[in-house]
Amino acid sequence: xxxxxxxxLSVERRGKIAILTMIKPESMNAxxxxxxxxxxxxxxxxxxxxxxxxxxILTGSGKAFSAGGNLKGMQDRTGIGVLDQPxxxxxxxxxxxxAVIRALMDCEVPMIAAVNGHAxxxxxxxxxxxxxxxxxxxxxxxxxFIKVGIVPGDGGAWxxxxxxxxxxxxxxxxxxxxxxxxQAKEYGLVTDVVPDAELLDRAIAIAERIVCNPPRxxxxxxxxxxxxxxxxxxxxxxxxxxxxxIVHETADNREAINAFVEKRPPVFTGE
Length: 271
What we know:
This protein is of the alpha/beta class. The protein contains 12 helices and 11 strands. The protein has a 7-stranded mixed β-sheet with strand order 1-2-3-4-6-8-11, with helices on both faces.
């Protein structure tokens, strides 16, 4: 059952978990229009502002997670890619797919990618914005921008290096080779590979292990991890101290300590 969403994404709530499903299986969930982009951006904004959400699962409908960008739009010079002039194309990328990647990276809610099928180009990079990635046995991946004569215009050159390191990212971008779920796990792109029918249940199980923790501390921990990817140790120590000062004043911090001392399960309220 879809609680809300637009034409590209459906959103189902299961307690503190929000399941986002890309619902354009006829195009293998390719992102083809600015309306698709805005649907993703607005959905993430809505969920980010909802303090009752403590985990998000991103997955696809049909046989694909996401095939990335829409090649027909590129051919016709319409949609979210190439337009009639280089400066127009640059602006189009910035307000389209790059805005989507920014929204995903800025989301403070822990995110799990449940890669159910093809994750190609932009689709692979969407998965890389998530904090945790698991894949179905049938999943296929490719950083195949080079195969259609373009560069990764969505920030993938930064994202994949953060996940896999430079040498492996370079190999995948420069060859454009496709690889399966088992190879993705060997590379470290995903942490687990499961039978297709078990994918969503496994993602929900991981999410449940996350959402049982204090909501404010969860979001600040994710933010700290993100900032640590590009900051100096001294800066992270300062930020850690500031975040710690915030969570020490929460009711959930007091509840966690009291529950531990009293040897009982904690009850967190997000306060």
